[in-house]
Amino acid sequence: MTGERLYDRLGGREGIADVVDDFYAQLVGDDELGEFFADADIKRLRETQTDFLCEVAGGPETYDGPSVRDAHLHVPFAPAHIDRAVELLYRSLEEHGVPDEDADAVVEAVTAYQEELLARPDDE
């Protein structure tokens, strides 16, 4: 598999969408994080998260939604919430047979945006 893109190793858009669907099911059902998704359009979130992960994994899709910061300004995440979401993301990746090295790459791509996820409207 040398030279194969992460996107391909994850199963392309279909494989990534499967992981994202599982991940959001876990987020919604989680005692700590579920409240953040009570009024959310989960279908739309799954689609945009799939586009985002496809792009960062080297696929042909592009994420053209709002910036990560702008999309999450209204969500009062704390660092512990991000940590919990990472746990659930790793669980979803494992349940879909994603090798550890590739799972780490996916999580690194997401956690690179931690500052934006934690931003508040009054932050400069």
From TrEMBL:
Q: Which GO terms describe its molecular function?
A: heme binding; metal ion binding; oxygen binding
Q: Which domain of life is it from?
A: Archaea
Give the keywords, sorted. Answer: Heme, Iron, Metal-binding, Transport
Gene3D superfamilies xrefs: Globins (1.10.490.10)
Q: What name does UniProt use for this protein? A: Group 1 truncated hemoglobin
